[in-house]
Specification:
Blueprint: E1 9-16, H1 18-29, E2 47-54, H2 61-74, E3 84-92, E4 95-100, H3 104-116, H4 126-132, H5 141-150, E5 162-166, E6 180-181, E7 183-191, E8 199-203
Antiparallel strand pairs: 1-2, 1-7, 3-4, 3-6, 4-5, 7-8
């Protein structure tokens, strides 16, 4: 294992409500699939707001949690509570994902959270960056620039509002059974080991 990899690591997800989760389960069951048995299930059904990161040595978990709680106590942007329409199923690399509509207020909130909590992300040195970049392939110059600044390349215009639902090789056909999405909360997530599930340790409401 590369020496820059450490656990726990953290992420910030938007978590769908139970109705949406049940509807995804029903869609997959039509193809004899169970979400919990898929490799991506360790992340759970979610929209990624802050990609997984290692915690800087300058901060501890309690400080991260306190900052998370304070952010949502003071932020008045509640656009994530809106109803989002499901636009369809698309394949992103090797993963089937449900694509949602978005709006400027929602995008601003998610980007603000991503930037705000970057303070807590461990900064890699040049050698570690070269190792970590091997996780990605064929990055454009702008994607590489985003990675060097924020630790993740697929941000802003390279990110779309979607929820990954299956990493199977089976072909899944979208039947319009899932028409909309409501989120329950933002969650600060923690992963304790390489193959461990991401568990919520703090919620927005």
């Amino acid at each position: 294992m590369d020496n820059y990899i450490q656990f726990p690591r953290y992420s910030i997800f938007l978590i769908p409500n139970k109705l949406f989760i049940d509807q995804v389960d029903n869609l997959l069951l039509k193809y004899d699939l169970k979400f919990d048995s898929l490799e991506l299930s360790k992340y759970g059904l979610h929209y990624t707001v802050k990609a997984p990161f290692y915690l800087s040595h300058l901060y501890n978990e309690e400080e991260l949690k306190n900052s998370f709680q304070e952010y949502f106590l003071t932020n008045q942007n509640k656009s994530y509570k809106e109803v989002f329409n499901v636009l369809g199923l698309k394949k992103i690399k090797n993963v089937f994902a449900l694509e949602m509509n978005t709006n400027k207020k929602f995008d601003f909130l998610c980007n603000d959270i991503m930037r705000h909590f970057d303070l807590f992300r461990k900064t890699l040195n040049q050698q570690e960056i070269q190792k970590d970049l091997k996780r990605f392939s064929n990055l454009t110059s702008l994607e590489t620039e985003y990675y060097l600044i924020w630790g993740y390349p697929y941000l802003f215009e390279f990110n779309n509002h979607h929820i990954s639902v299956s990493d199977t090789s089976k072909e899944i056909i979208f039947d319009n059974s899932i028409k909309s999405l409501n989120y329950s909360n933002f969650s600060l997530m923690k992963q304790d080991s390489l193959n461990g599930k991401f568990i919520s340790i703090c919620k927005s409401d």
